[in-house]
């Protein structure tokens, strides 16, 4: 995996942000991958379509398990469930990690599973966890 974040915008905004943030190193390979991704518009379009398809599959799996999907991004879904903490714990026992939110105890965040096999595993874990809680 690779994480590469950046900020671009008007100089006034980026200068203020840079003054508030600490500096951190970015590896050469990460810079090369980032440069290639930002210059490959066909890849970007294909990835947007792929992520949208994967998110549709994740949303369907969560909905079929009884969770209400109400937000997210192209990379994760935000879902609600009255027993979110119990679901988080039950899924963790099945090696599925979600993010809980102390400020919203009925929310769980699910990342994209990453493959059809992982989506199938998530669906099975959701069914088992729902039966448990």
Task: Provide a descriptive summary of the structure in words.
The protein is an alpha+beta fold and 133 residues long. The protein is 55% helix and 13% strand. The protein is built from five helices and four strands. Strands 1-2-4-3 form a four-stranded antiparallel sheet, with helices on one face. It starts with 10 loop residues before the first helix and ends with a helix.
Please give the number of β-strands. 4
Main sheet properties:
4 strands, antiparallel
What share of the residues does DSSP label as strand, in percent?
5-15%
**Poorly predicted tracts of residues:** none
Relative helix content: 40-55%
Shape: globular
Q: Summarize model confidence as the mean pLDDT.
A: 94
The total count of helices amounts to: 5
The neighbouring-strand order within the major sheet is 1-2-4-3
Question: In terms of topology, how is this protein built?
Answer:
Blueprint: H1 11-20, H2 28-39, H3 41-64, E1 68-72, E2 76-80, H4 84-93, E3 99-100, E4 107-111, H5 116-132
Antiparallel strand pairs: 1-2, 2-4, 3-4
Helix pairs in contact: 3-5
Short description:
This protein is α+β, with helices and mostly antiparallel strands. The chain is 55% helix and 13% strand. A hairpin with a 6-residue loop joins strand 3 and strand 4.
Task: Looking at this protein, list some descriptive labels.
4 strands; 133 residues; alpha+beta; four-stranded antiparallel β-sheet
